[in-house]
């Protein structure tokens, strides 16, 4: 690997840290406001192997918060836009693109074939999010899950804690409630904000792609969720024996 572009990173985490990141294999599911930034931070840190998953195309309403969303990319597949960017950051990145919304069977298949060190759940719909969490837990694969970034404006309220310690987040509440049916009460990290959601920013939808509603969003909150998720993974990998 040409390490020159990682010179500043090596000063911080040393050659051993770079080697750990280069050997790591990471799965990022969801390339919206959270996942697109998380994937970029992983690539810029020197993660050597990554699989990115999203079946969506860029919509003009994504421009306010999503890294791949530009007027020039509207209508393009997010996986393709993000992949081009990641490979421009690190041409040596071993990158696998999956341009689909994963159903439960495909989640099982992807996890079984991937041999991942860590999974980043950046899905914003409850049902597929639960499927991914349960599939990762079943296989004892480490996972960090992003909770609700909508309806929030205070970056200082964002943190990473076990799912059992989340609060003031409607998405996390739904996830906790439904996981209890599977006897999962704790045991994986979540990125969440304990800022009270601004309820007057809620909009109902037609239920497409498992989403019945969504909250208003500002440019920087989903990005900081992605930053925290990536940081959790990178720091774990660097410290791992």
TrEMBL record:
GO terms for molecular function: tRNA threonylcarbamoyladenosine dehydratase; ubiquitin-like modifier activating enzyme activity. Keywords: Membrane, Transmembrane, Transmembrane helix. Gene3D superfamilies: NAD(P)-binding Rossmann-like Domain. InterPro entries: ThiF/MoeB/HesA, ThiF_NAD_FAD-bd, Ubiquitin-activating_enz. It holds the Pfam family ThiF. Residues 12-240 form the THIF-type NAD/FAD binding fold domain. The chain crosses the membrane at residues 214-238. GO terms for biological process: cyclic threonylcarbamoyladenosine biosynthetic process. It comes from the Bacteria. The keyword RNA-binding does not apply. This is tRNA A37 threonylcarbamoyladenosine dehydratase.
């Amino acid at each position: 690997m040409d390490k020159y572009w990682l010179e500043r990173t090596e000063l911080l985490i040393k050659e051993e840290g770079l080697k750990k990141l280069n050997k790591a294999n990471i799965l990022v599911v969801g390339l919206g406001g959270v996942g697109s930034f998380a994937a970029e931070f992983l690539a810029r840190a020197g993660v050597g192997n990554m699989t990115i998953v999203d079946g969506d195309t860029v919509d003009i309403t994504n421009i306010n918060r999503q890294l791949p969303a530009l007027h020039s990319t509207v209508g393009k597949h997010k996986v393709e836009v993000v992949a081009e960017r990641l490979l421009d950051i690190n041409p040596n990145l071993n990158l696998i693109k999956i341009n689909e919304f994963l159903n439960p069977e495909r989640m099982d298949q992807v996890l079984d074939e991937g041999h991942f060190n860590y999974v980043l759940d950046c899905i914003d719909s409850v049902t597929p999010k639960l499927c991914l969490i349960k599939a990762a837990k079943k296989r004892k694969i480490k996972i960090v899950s992003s909770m609700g970034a909508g309806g929030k404006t205070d970056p200082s309220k964002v943190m990473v804690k076990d799912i059992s310690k989340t609060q003031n987040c409607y998405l996390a509440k739904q996830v906790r409630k439904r996981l209890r049916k599977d006897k999962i009460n704790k045991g994986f990290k979540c990125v969440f904000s304990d800022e009270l959601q601004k309820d007057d920013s809620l909009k109902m939808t037609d239920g497409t792609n498992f989403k019945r509603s969504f909250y208003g969003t500002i440019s920087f909150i989903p990005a900081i969720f992605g930053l925290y998720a990536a940081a959790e993974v990178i720091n774990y990998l660097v410290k791992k024996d």
